[in-house]
Amino acid sequence: MKLEKIVKWLDEVLQSNKFDDVSNNGLQIENSGIDIARVAFAVDASLQSVRAACEQGAQLLVVHHGISWGGGIKRITGGEYNVIGEAIRSRLALYASHLPLDANKKVGNNWQLARFMGLKNISPAFSYHGNIIGVTGISPKKRTVEIGEIKFTIPKGKIGVCSGGAAVFAKDAASSGCKVLVTGEADWGETIAAENIGMEMILAGHYLTETFGVKALAKLLEKTYPEIETIFISR
In this structure, are 8 and 86 located in the same domain? Predict the structure, then answer.
């Protein structure tokens, strides 16, 4: 399958053009026009994930965190050179989706994480630069949740969910009546700010909370195009 067809499908599913994002979402590296038979998915466009994708025969790598942010890449040196050089030498294309993959109702990190935790009545929540990227939902009962090596307990009641580094939403979660906010990580200032308003946060890992979106997107791609094989690359 041609790269352009898969990119068009990804753009349509993720609705990338609707987001004001620090990431330059979409196709970030082309692949010299070779056909796509295998697509790798990973959280980060790291040298490790690029090498793993190439070693496992992928022609396209889809990630949550790409290599082009804001004004783009100023210089192709150091780590940027290593990642880009490896991809180009192996004719590996790269597609990135940051906030669109957080927010998507079907395959997004936060909707998928909320479903994984067994939340009901899931609704969009938490605005970041005008983009609603998180969710709230109702936990029918107290339950223990395991994500990778992280285990935690969520109470019965309203729960806020926003993957990655979203502790900034502690105040919004408290204002909306959430008992806890489940996110990935928090800096010390955010931790103290949440404590000061009595908002409990569960820090389930930046990386782990953002594996849900790429995995769900991979399954949807295979379902839509059975001729395409997908693989997930873990850290």
Answer: yes
